[in-house]
Amino acid sequence: MKDLFNKVAFAFLGVSVMTQGALASSWDDVVAAAKEEGQVAIYHSQLGADYFEDVVRGFETETGIDVVLLAGRATEVMERVRSEGASGRVAGDVVMSSTAINQLLGEEGFLAEIAEVPNAANLRPEFSVAPMQLPAFSQAYGLLVNTNLVPEADRPTSWNDLLDPKWQGKILSNEVRTVGTGLAVLGPIYELYGEDYVEGLAQQDVTFSRDIRLEERRVAMGEFPILMTEMFGFYKDLEGLPVELILPEPSSPYTPIDMSVIKDASHPNAALLFMNYFLSQEAQTIYAKVGMIPVVEGVIDTLSPEEARLSGVELMGWIGRDQRGPAIAVMKKHFGE
């Protein structure tokens, strides 16, 4: 497994994998061709996620295929796919990003249609295959509270509880006026409760940040009592600290993450084989155990009660590409530019 972060590495990769690969016809042929290709390059946004690397190592061990990784923010990965496609120097094979971003890349002509993969047959009913996208997992969000600062009896249990005047000046949030975690959380809440909710939250003097990993540390250190944009998958990293993850009523906002094959990929068969592996019980269980939402049947039943509490949470909704612009406009209206 290699990680590529700099322009020199990109240039090298671009020169070394410029030949477009051919997709095999049957699944047995896909597996054989994937092993012949011997490598797959994955562009992703799972920065610092040990569980993702665990899945990658499992795939390499099972198949003998080398994985080359490029990690970046979702918008950076999107622009990389675009620039490679426009230049005709495609280095990536798989892009893992939000459903909204992969939808856009597909509409712009930078993704290939996906052949059938066996493990897609095990998808849960609420997750489905699109012509250029396979669901990978979903990441859900809740409230993180400092247990030293917020007595158990006072801890919020619903999203509406955040509007209580006692929390004025005490709420930290990821930035909501641009695409990112903050909008992924407040956007679906806005769609559920309407603009009055956003107006009420604006009166709470919320503090905004653009560093999702530092935000939870600021709550753990006691700078703020509440973070309203905690990703479930980060919570286990806070073990031993005075914090609690709350799943507010009635449900949790989430972001669906998809996998797609990049158009003119050099290793299209290895790309399909990796995507099929990601939908295996083994890979999905690795994700579910850290609080991610699995997309295949049977995983949640194997988890501990606490793991199932997170991975089996009731999902509220997510902000799609068409809803982002109007939602951002509402956020700017009430929180300022």
From TrEMBL:
Keyword Signal part of the UniProt annotation: yes
Pfam families cross-referenced by the UniProt entry: SBP_bac_6
Protein name per Swiss-Prot or TrEMBL: Iron-utilization periplasmic protein
PANTHER family on file: THIAMINE-BINDING PERIPLASMIC PROTEIN-RELATED
SUPFAM superfamilies found in the cross-reference section: Periplasmic binding protein-like II
Keyword Signal set for record: yes
Keyword line: Signal
